[in-house]
Amino acid sequence: MNIEDVEKLAELARIELSADEKKSLLKDFDSILAYVDTIKGAEIGDGDVKPDLYNVWREDWVEPREFSRESIVGQFPEEEAGYLKVKKIL
User: How high is the mean pLDDT of the chain?
Assistant: First the structure.
């Protein structure tokens, strides 16, 4: 990476950089890219690495429930023409 690359990035980001800021960013980018190269060189083996995922809290299961229209309607204070009335929020 060179100063021209930093200037192009600044242009794309629509920011103005002083000469000192460009030099500082160039140094930062170089260290970041060197770190990426280090990571690329790491040996990770050929096998797939998949974590063993399981639910540690509880077993998932469906709880059957019986709902009837009457039991739901009975919980509303008002009904009009077959519609359940609720409080106005706005």
Answer: 86
In terms of residue numbers, what domain contains 8?
1-60
What DSSP assignment string belongs to 21-63?
HHHHHHHHHHHHHHHHHHHHT----SS--------SS------
Q: Is residue 16 part of a domain?
A: yes
- Residue 54 counted as domain residue: yes
What are 73-90's pLDDT values in tens digits?
888 888 888 888 888 888
List pLDDT tens digits, range 43-58.
877 777 777 787 778 7
In a domain, 72, yes or no: no
What does the block give as tokens for 33?
Answer: 């890219």
